[in-house]
Amino acid sequence: MDLTFYKMSPLEQWITDKYTEHSIYTPKDLDIHRIASIFGGEITYLPTKSHARWEEDGTSEFMICLNSRLDEPHIRGEFFHELCHPLRHVGDQKMLPKAFRDLQETQASLFQQYAAIPIFMVSELDMPMYEKDFPYLWAHTFNIPVSLAARRYNQIKGRIYQEKNDHELLSLEQNLYRKADPANWCDEAKEMFRLAIQRKKDKGVVFE
Known about the structure:
The structure is a single chain. The protein is mostly helical. It is built from 8 helices and 3 strands, in the order ααβββαααααα.
């Protein structure tokens, strides 16, 4: 996996900046209580579906309630998902149209991947020999579910693939442009072009 082609989204860059600002550099630094505190929130555990609560009064305080019946990797996975809502969203989801709820959940899913498996930490890890091993290595390293690690791996791989395609297309366009510029033609091509123009002039073709 060539991470040199990976480009962070604005949201991913924002998370990265927040982490590094508070000296969160390694997977061991990703303590969810510490992260919640950094962003102005707290965590509690209840035997119910995980959710976040916050007041839309201009304050940054919030509470994330995590399902106490889950194991630690799944609790951590749900924390990074729920963290997105008070930080990036407004409005009670129950009162929002389905399209907006779906959009917020999509954003929370991306936030979860970026926050749980930061790309700048991934770049410091040893890469496994086989592609199938990436999700298991990341799940173990970041203490999250394999399903979340697999989604992050596919997301990174897809963005690298897209960036490589964009880079190759740009290189092709630049190469075609260079070839189309007469200044870059070889002497033989220039002479052939001159003769073609001369023949058209001899036939009385008018150039405007």
